[in-house]
Amino acid sequence: TPxxxxxxxxxxxxxxxxxxxxxNSVATSPVTKNIPSLRYLSYRLxxxxxxxxxxxxxxxxxxxxxxxxxx
Length: 71
Hints:
Number of helices: 0
Largest sheet: 4 strands, antiparallel
Strand content: over 45%
Strand order of the largest sheet: 1-2-3-4
Number of strands: 4
Distance between the termini: 22 Å
Structural class: mainly beta
Order of helices and strands: EEEE
Shape: elongated
Radius of gyration: 16 Å
């Protein structure tokens, strides 16, 4: 279950933009005996404006922190 924890616009023009998105996600799996995994991730989004809408054209991972317990 990912959640957006924060955003930040890096650059913006009338037709293009870049932004950072900070997320955290929690997941459980029978493989890990339902012990939740916790990951903090950030992405740099590249956006283009088309027909009055902003579309994501690229989503590049920037940072990754995995706090999942190791058994």
